[in-house]
Amino acid sequence: MTPFALIDNLEHLPNPFTQFDRIVANLEGSIPQLMDPDYRRDLQLALCFIYSYNGSQATFNSYRREVERLLLWSWHKASCPTTQLKREQIEEFIHFCISPPESWIGTKNVARFKLSMGERVPNKSWRPFVAHVSKLEFKNGETPLAKQHSLSQSAIRATFSILSSYYGFLMQEDAAQQNPVALIRQKSKFVKKEITRKQVRRISNLQWDYVIETAEILAQEDPTMHERTLFVMNALLGMYLRISELVADERSAPVMGDFIKDSDGHWWFKVLSKGNKERLVAVSDDMLNALIRYRRFRDLPNLPTIAENTPLVPKNRGQGPMTSSRQVRNIVQSCFDKAYERMCEDGMRADAEDLRVATVHWLRHTGISEDVKTRPKEHVREDAGHASMATTDKYIDTEYRERHASGRKKTLRPH
């Protein structure tokens, strides 16, 4: 049996603390378990837990995904509410997530709910798991197959972390006697320990030269469309921005007034980053010049004023700030694709290959990787908004260079 979605998107979800009956009324016709008071209470507790993370769309979605999967497995496979699950059943659930049946796996993202006679009801095409193909495979015309679904190590770690928080909440509500996730002593069965540090995914300096030159060419040919493109590319690399820090969402809307000049005449950019934490990013002279160029194009004074509310990145059509992270991805991808073509035309196909698989986040990695070569890592950490120095240390590859330099001289015929 393929289960139906239980929890709608945040913008359509009534407050479960006050409107739970309204939520259940739309689900009862599709989900027979909700006729049982134990299951109704199970759903209400899960909704209240997830709704508490409504300050961030991304966090809400992550917590909903993990808890909803547990609810569906518990109701359909273990035949009990999640409040009654034991340690061994949580282990069964983790195994299930690693290898779910094909009937639980979709091959494309579809809406969880849809409108029917004015009411939002579960979409029968939705699945709890979705198979994906890599960016390069998608470009080559390959489509995902359900049997190819797999969970990454980071996804398994997220499952453990979120479900442990969920059971901590249930214990506080006196709905569970213990945390079965915390009782699993051998999580290493599911999560492999990383023996060595992963290489940071970044583009090379040569590739960046072609990418930014491509953006400059586009801006010269069609400034109305691509002066914004050039500014976006510079901001992503020059200030290590995440997509969420560049577009407007329910938490914040970046404006020109977020560029701030201090009493020493130094410029900073104020960012609302993950965890709703503000940070200040040092604005380099080059980045300031990029901002001036962009503001001149938009018929604004060279530099922002205090409390200026002009959207940082506006829509090309219509009014207001850009709100679509997909649009930013399309802007970056277009630059990557055109830069790849130019490199191939210049006879550098091998050097260009990374641009076929690179993502927006690689620009943040590239900016940080370059800066830790010349700046104090404490400064880079503050600008990047890393929670710990260990994260910043991942970008320092001096050890790799020295290790490889000593290894290059190894001979296959020892004397």
UniProtKB/TrEMBL annotation:
Keyword vocabulary terms for this entry: DNA integration, DNA recombination, DNA-binding
Subcellular location: Cytoplasm
Residue stretches making up the Tyr recombinase domain: 201-409
BP GO terms, sorted: DNA integration; DNA recombination
PANTHER family, sorted: PHAGE INTEGRASE-RELATED, TYROSINE RECOMBINASE XERC
Protein name per Swiss-Prot or TrEMBL: Site-specific integrase
Entries under CDD domains matching the protein: DNA_BRE_C (cd00397)
MF term (GO), any: DNA binding
Basic residues composition bias: residue spans: 406-415
Cellular component GO terms held in the UniProt record: cytoplasm
Main location: cytoplasm
PROSITE patterns: TYR_RECOMBINASE
Amino acid composition bias (Basic and acidic residues), ranges on this chain: 375-385, 394-405
Organism domain of life: Bacteria
InterPro entries: DNA_brk_join_enz, Integrase-like_cat_sf, Integrase_catalytic, Integrase_recombinase_N, Tyrosine_recombinase_XerCD
Region of interest (Disordered), ranges: 375-415
